[in-house]
Write a structure and sequence with these properties.
alpha+beta, three-stranded antiparallel β-sheet, 2 helices, globular
Amino acid sequence: MTRAFDVLAVAVNPMTGEPLAEPRVERVDTDNPIFEGARGPWDVEDRYLAFWNRLNDSWETIVRDEKVLVISVVER
């Protein structure tokens, strides 16, 4: 059974913490391979952050221009 979640997130400057844009809501669902098998909001949040911030190991070695932070995850 597919479950849908609204993720409220914002991109920030990782050096200053300043928002780079207004927060936005993205609807995700568990039939997307990234979120397949997600058990709840925390699992969705972890996968969302991993997708946007950990695409490769560059965060380990290079400071990026932006970092995504999740504000809330609500099941719909």
